[in-house]
Amino acid sequence: MTSVQVDGIAELVTNDPSRGDETALGVLTDAAVVIDDDRIAWVGPSASAPAADRRMDVRGRAVIPSFVDSHSHLVFAGDRADEFTARMAGTPYDGGGIQRTVQATRVATDKELRALLATRVDEMHAQGTGTVEIKSGYGLTVEDEARLLRLAGEVTDETTFLGAHIVPPGVDVDAYVALVTGPMLAACAPHARWIDVFCEPASSHAFDGDQAREVLEAGVAAGLGLRVHGNQLATGPGVRLAVEFAAASVDHCTYLSRADVNALAGSATVATLLPGVEFATRSPYPDGRALLDAGVRLALATDCNPGTCYTSSMPFVLALAVREMGLTPAEALWAATAGGAAALRRDDVGRLTVGAAGHLTVLDAPTYQHLAYRAGVPIARCLDLGWPARPAEAGRTSPI
Ligand SMILES: N=CN[C@@H](CCC(=O)O)C(=O)O
Ligand SMILES: [Zn+2]
Known about the structure:
By secondary structure, this protein is of the alpha/beta class.
């Protein structure tokens, strides 16, 4: 066991409301954190920090819990920059481009996909993300979906089976739902913690309410946790289905009816907002302020994928939430850390409390408010505690 005392912290965000300023962020000033092995052993004022094997002085910087990015699609090959350019000129997003990524991903080797994935995970880590959820969904055959999940499982425990991403062109929808809920689920469940379905009104490339219900029921029977892509393209059944199934999260929530907001308020389901998608698809931003005021629990995530949002940057997402969705900098930071943890039903990340994972993100700034204030400036990075066995040596890229 090796312990490290991190001190010189001008402002420490704990996400423990019983600490410090007693807001949801639980902000302490002039603070220290002691990490024993990879867990937090002590948090408090610098002056009373217990001794540790090593000391790391962050010299007046702010420290926050590492971001929890609860929605990404990192295992893919190919590029769709041309679609982004077309959208900026007015072409709407309809999900049809997913098939292009499916084609490019199917022909990529494991080695190629592993290298692409490693680069993206490293990019996230370098911008302060400590936990990432990764979905399949660009394989859409039994073998390819299982392959993508195996690769994702090499870099995270938060793996999500998204065979129900789109219906592959030329395939009968009922036959495909039967495949997803039968042999594909059987092959993928051992590699997945979650199941997800892209649910939109009938006539899109995605799955309607009845089909999505079948997918979620099969996921429950297979022992997987539930997530839903819902209400991205239009108001539809996704949000209310997620709430009915007590899914951990419904993601996107771009188009919400009053009934959707009422259903989410006080429910077990976190609404995960993905403002990078609205940015990169020229869609209207959901009213995050109204959701919070209605009592909805929010998370923020990147949705990093080649189609709707190719950013790995949680600080960018956080700045958009402040500027475009009416969240305060404090609310946005909470949603990007503790909110993401809630969306993954985790209580060991997204907070800096005794017993939690030692995932600290240091900011080249005196306060977390700089995350939105200095948008676009790379001020956030995961604190490298220099543990003896770095994951790279163990065949993994980052401790995400
Ligand atoms: N909406 C569904 N899936 C992804 C986009 C996938 C793509 O276009 O490649 C999303 O979350 O936005
Ligand atoms: Zn997504």
